[in-house]
Amino acid sequence: MKRVTLEDIYVHPIVQKYVRRSGMAHAISVAHKAYELATKYNVNPELAVKAGFLHDIGHYTWYNKGEWDYEQYKACDIHPIKGAERAHKLLVRLGEDKQAAKEIAHAILFHTESALPSGDFNRSPLQEVVHLADELDKQPNDAHHYEQINHQEELKQIRQLDDQLSHTNVLTGS
Ligand SMILES: [Fe+2]
Ligand SMILES: [Fe+2]
């Protein structure tokens, strides 16, 4: 099976629409951080990078009479649930290994508690890496969602991650 690269994912129109909505620079930065953490904590870096890159693909907009309604957004947010499903569908369509697609979807689902029932739960090492990578990239007032880098720089960093992954030789664990 041909490996689905990060660039295959990046260029897809669904990713351009939804990942760009929540911040392409944030997504790429979290993917880089997930790679570093995965190497440190002995987690499959390919799953960590893909989940890190796609973790906020479930974001959507809450407008009330043309105004951004942050209170409604906070109260009704299900972006990890929506993101897990959206990323899973996309990855399977691109030809991703189905077990890998499931693990990535789970890591997206658990990247934040915002849509989960309250109470304790234990994240797997992969889920923890993606959660930590996102936390490390957060800025006050949600500024991380508005960071911008130009398209050339985006592609350069995506290719750099693909290059790093191709050298780690850990694909889907199979
Ligand atoms: Fe998020
Ligand atoms: Fe995020």
Automatic annotation (TrEMBL):
Coiled coil: none annotated. Pfam families: HD. Residues 19-148 form the HD/PDEase domain. Gene3D superfamilies: Hypothetical protein af1432. Transmembrane segments: none annotated. InterPro entries: Diverse_Catalytic_Enzymes, HD/PDEase_dom, HD_domain, HDIG_dom. SUPFAM superfamilies: HD-domain/PDEase-like (SSF109604). PANTHER family: BIS(5'-NUCLEOSYL)-TETRAPHOSPHATASE, SYMMETRICAL (PTHR35795:SF1), SLR1885 PROTEIN (PTHR35795). This is HD domain-containing protein. It comes from Piscibacillus salipiscarius. The lineage of its organism: Bacteria, Bacillati, Bacillota, Bacilli, Bacillales.
